[in-house]
Amino acid sequence: MSNLLFIPFKNSYNLDLKETVRRYLQDHTSAHPDSFKVDINRWQELRRDGVGRTVHKDGTDKMNNYHAQLLSILTKLPSDIGLDISYAPVFSPNAIPVTLRSLVFERAAVLFNLAALYSQLANNEDRSHMEGIKRAISCYQSAAGTLHYLRSSALAELSDSPQEDDIPFDLDNSCIHSLEWLMLAQAQECFWQKAKIDGFKNALMAKLAANTSALYKLSISAVRDASPPVKSLFPSDWLAHIEAKQHHFEAVAQYRKSAEELENSSYGVEISRLKEAQNEAKSAQDIARRGKIAQAVVQDIDSLVNAVKTALARAERDNDLIYHQDIPAVSALPPIPHAAIAQVTIPAGLLSQPKGTHMIFGELLGWGAQEAINIYNDRKKNLLQDQIVEPARELKDRADEMLTSHNLPASIEALERPVGLPPSLLKKAEEVRLENGPMKIESWFEDLQRQARHDFNILEEAMDILDTEASEDEVARKELPLNRPPSYEANIELIEKEKRYRTILDQAKASDDTVRRKWDEWENNITDLTLNESELEAMVPSSTASNRKTPESAVTSRYARHLRVLLESLDTLHADRDQYVRRAEALAEADDIYPRILKAASGIARLAKVQPATFEDVLDEELAKYDKFCEYIKESEQKQEDILSSIEADNEKFIKSRKDDPSVKEREHALQSLDLSYHKYREITNNLQEGIKFYNDLSGLLLQFKDSCKIWCNHRQQEIHALSQSLGSMSLQENDDAGDFSEEDVRDQPEAVAEAPAPDLPNPPSQLPQSAQPKKVFGKISSGLPPLNSSEWGFEEIKLPPGPSKKKSKMKV
């Protein structure tokens, strides 16, 4: 039985990553999953041997290789690719595992298990001879180095993840730091043992022991300074073992130093150090007996207690009879210097890429580069929409609104064409007729209502899922001792989100009703536009009586011509602006930044962590080619304002110059009514288009919300199932009297693990819920609602509520 500790493995479970990885590559990269079929299979194979299950020296190479591949994969893929990764708590292998969607979590767990493997290899060494001690020292130092690398490299990334609150306590910084000090202390203890066998002088032995005690003290202090959940995860015999070792080696240091004082004839100081050694040794003895630690440690301490007792009795007798030296207080003694021989040794396999090894997804564009492409495309899309397309449309709408308010061009067309219909009106009427406008609007209303009902049904189905879970929870509470909040408390965040979505749907319904009322008001007028030319002409009265030539009519005609020129200038400006918009859209359609990003990424170190921000300069340079279009839109806005100002001034003169001719006014009113009907037609169709898109986009969010409810409810059901199994197992164990060995026997004999073949990995008993990132959607702007991603709604994404039980009760380590 060893007098040192080893770190157990964090148990992992079967993980079929193929389908998830293929789906991510299909949805988020430009590569076809089949082109990486070999890499995906290789990843699956490497994980089987790389998560740590058997104690064999070849296992370190396999785990180092798997870690190197993970490190490379994380330069190609983001941490969250939708892959659920489960690991059991380190000191509770049969507890509910912690499940995270994080490749960084996988990497951290692999590093933890690599350190555990080094510690178990060290523990298996025969330290009764020199070669065994040397190998144990090397493994303990590598274990400490691996934990140091885990703490300084992987934990920082894991802490920055969106699932920070779900990180297991055995990957907390204080826990890892404590284990790191422990492994270093055990390496130092092996150096002390080696020095003892080699017969080193008492002075050096005291220094080695003092440093060993200090390292054990650092380990136990890290636990004491940790949060309560971290403290509670360590077995009580572990903490007792570490504390006993601290006092034990402090006693050894004082004992060895007393021997040096004897050699230097400092008999009083010798006695003082022996008394301190006796106090420390008795403290170690008391802790060891209370803590029920390994018998080998207890025997070491008992042996030291006896040796110190014998030496102290001899020293006091000799000093009383012969030397009569004063015995200084312990506080007056100089501290024993430390000899720090053990070193944190990071395995070489963690610091460099294996030579000649094919790296998984080596040909895939890195995640940071791919994300930079996505960011560029988003920025390009937003720039095109926000600074070119939308401003151009708003300028056109503003001009049309101004002309309509001034009865233009109907007023001058009524004068220019006393009979017949203006070409502009005929063109608009033909447009509505060809689109079969009224039937099109009615059809879209049906689509809108159908999609609204679909969204409402999804929300109702999500509530049905929560209601079913609440009923099951009530039944389970009558049969099982559930230590978790009831459903009406645990699901409060989901209920709040349901209320928000229901409010959105109610407001959308109100907007739909507004559009319907608008259609009911203008349906007859818009239907008139579908008539043929002769029927339309019959609806518009003529003004031939007003066409007589008079001095007043000449002035009116002159102003009408001025207005016609300005209107044609405005039409030309609209046409030029539309052409610029089409050119910008064509440029964006053909714009592919991939070659530039690929070239920039090729100049970065292969295993470097490439972030999207690395390509910021490239993105800015590429977006600059749209500057000329944005500048033109701004310039055209000023030109339009100048033309509209001139139109307004000339139109006022035109109105004043006209005689009060009823026939002209009647014709103007008829033409204006038809023109306004066309604009209302366009307004209603735009409202319906945006409404249908709104409901389609909202359905995606509602489906994600429904899935969140399912995951949450499944987790609650798994908790009940796990508790039922646990109670059943406890009942069986009470009736089972055939056990031949204890947990302590197994824990203290890792050799049995080393000899056994690698078992098949079980499936995880349960999985914790994961949050999904929703897609952003555009809102129903024209119908009176802000976009779904607007801050006006008070939220931007779907997030799952916290787990149904409190953090401490999740058995998360």
TrEMBL record:
It holds the Pfam family ALIX_LYPXL_bnd. Residues 3-403 form the BRO1 domain. Signal peptide: none annotated. Residues 734-746 have a biased composition (Acidic residues). GO terms for cellular component: endosome. Residues 732-813 are annotated as: Disordered. Belongs to the palA/RIM20 family. PANTHER family: PCD6 INTERACTING PROTEIN-RELATED, PROGRAMMED CELL DEATH 6-INTERACTING PROTEIN. This is BRO1-like domain-containing protein.
